[in-house]
Amino acid sequence: MSVNDEPLLHAQDLVRRYAMRRGMFGRPAEVRAVDGVSLTLRRGQTLGLVGESGCGKSTTGRMVLGLEVPDSGGVAFANERMPAPGTPAWRRLRARMAMVYQDPLGALDRRLDIGTQVAEPLEIHGIGTRADRPVRVTALLRSVGLRPDHARSFPHELSGGQRQRAVLARALATSPDLLVCDEPISALDVSIQAQVMNLLAEVQARTGVAMLFISHDLRAVRQMSHRVAVMYLGRVVEEGEPDDVLHAPAHPYAQALVSAIPHPGRRGGRIVLKGDPPNPAARPPGCAFHPRCALAAALCAREVPVLKPRASDRRLVACHVAQGEVAPGAGLPQPAMEAA
Ligand SMILES: Nc1ncnc2c1ncn2[C@@H]1O[C@H](COP(=O)(O)OP(=O)(O)OP(=O)(O)O)[C@@H](O)[C@H]1O
């Protein structure tokens, strides 16, 4: 097993529920934001996490970082089980992880200059001496394509792309093994997005940092990721290599998601999903996707499909039909034949 094949992070059966009240007098409901997610991320690699808004991507990222405590399940990082947040053991492991947020302006403190903010993690984790911090800050700024004099700039004096570079410089200050990038390009101009993606890839090649890359942008995920996991209503429904999952998806939801992006080599048009967007407070029984699935069989409404490897390829799929366990539409009442 090479270094890059070693798992850095393993999340096992993560579950996170939130209490939600519908209206002032409504009965409390439970949102199952994440409902049994298991993920493995190897050293130096990127795992892309995709799915429509509200499917639980950010909550998963926050649990991986220990910013959110799972109701059940757990995270192992570098072969150690993540300890309870706030403990010294947690702080030691947490220093090896960092986050890059969607909104760089929101992630930075408007009142502090960039140099102070990039130096902050060095101070918090006691890295280097006070005297050598300016040298370290300069090196960090250079490593993300900023100039040393940007240390004296305030966030509002930088462009959106420069601010995201500053956020990345701060994230890299502790030389983390893992970066959780939550929609890192979606708040940026299209022209800047490619620059930031190239920078992330270059940082990974140089430092060997692993990334959990959360994004709506399937093209970005395809470019950045070694593996991709597709989430639907709090669960992973398909996981595999980007060329498989994002080019020839097996799960009907992944097929619909991928069909929305035009691609020259792909056959077939856009798949329009039937029914309403999913409500995490009212999860359908069986496969949560079955009410919107054109291939659903009777079994899909009864039994939750398990995410498991397909016999025919290396990807993991949670779908009775894609696994060949049942034929599309099997056991459902046939539509009445139209009169000739
Ligand atoms: N603190 C919270 N309290 C109540 N509900 C929450 C909380 N955080 C998330 N949720 C709910 O959990 C579900 C999953 O949210 P999450 O932000 O993880 O999804 P997401 O896939 O990252 O969405 P987006 O792409 O829009 O950020 C959503 O229904 C959301 O409303």
Automatic annotation (TrEMBL):
A cellular component annotation (GO) from this entry: plasma membrane
Membrane topology: Peripheral membrane protein
Positions of the ABC transporter domain: 9-258
InterPro entries: AAA+_ATPase, ABC_transp_ATP-bind, ABC_transporter-like_ATP-bd, ABC_transporter-like_CS, Oligopep_ABC_C, P-loop_NTPase
Top-level taxon of origin: Bacteria
GO terms, molecular function: ATP binding; ATP hydrolysis activity
GO biological process: one example: transmembrane transport
Keywords: ATP-binding, Nucleotide-binding, Transport
Compartment(s) where it occurs, according to its Swiss-Prot or TrEMBL record: Cell inner membrane
A Pfam family that the UniProt record links to this protein: oligo_HPY
NCBIfam families, A to Z: oligo_HPY
Family membership: Belongs to the ABC transporter superfamily.
Protein name as annotated: ATP-binding cassette domain-containing protein
Biological source species: Muricoccus nepalensis
UniProt lineage: Bacteria, Pseudomonadati, Pseudomonadota, Alphaproteobacteria, Acetobacterales
